[in-house]
Design brief:
By secondary structure, this protein is of the alpha+beta class. 25% of the residues lie in helices and 41% in strands. The protein starts with 6 loop residues before the first helix and ends with a strand.
């Protein structure tokens, strides 16, 4: 009994199997969120480091997120700008995009009569991010 192989068919079959296996490996990575959550604790007004308070005059009128490294701790500062709302940090995540560290800060604007122009959170990060992105939402009543 003699078995003949169709080399062209075997080659196409191996290539097809490789595409299927690689598809199962790489396609899910395209749709997965690779960002890592950052643990943080809100810093009370009385406990905000003096150096942070000194620089806040420059940034209080802008809506933005800043990161500051003081005493080997990374702090995230979010300012509300000219808005009259209170700020609450919902989530902080860090991701690597094109070899740069990108921090994403998600905040919610709360309806409050007397609120502070900025909030400060202490994070568990070891280094400053290359870029910070601020995402805002307004609380629904």
């Amino acid at each position: 009994m003699e078995i003949k192989f169709n080399i062209k068919g075997v080659t196409y079959g191996v290539i097809l199997i490789l595409f299927i296996v690689l598809g199962f490996v790489f396609i899910p990575k395209l749709f997965m969120d690779t960002s890592k959550p950052v643990d943080f604790t809100m810093v009370q007004r009385e406990s905000i480091p003096e150096k942070i308070l000194d620089i806040m005059d420059k940034y209080e009128n802008e809506e933005r997120a800043l990161a500051v490294k003081l005493d080997n701790k990374i702090y995230v500062i979010v300012t509300r700008g000219e808005k009259e709302h209170g700020i609450e940090i919902d989530k902080i995540t860090v991701d690597t995009v094109e070899e740069k560290t990108v921090m994403e800060v998600n905040i919610t604007y709360k309806d409050k009569d007397k609120s502070h122009p900025f909030v400060v959170a202490e994070t568990n990060l070891k280094s400053l991010p290359d870029k910070i992105q601020l995402n805002t939402t307004k609380e629904e009543n």
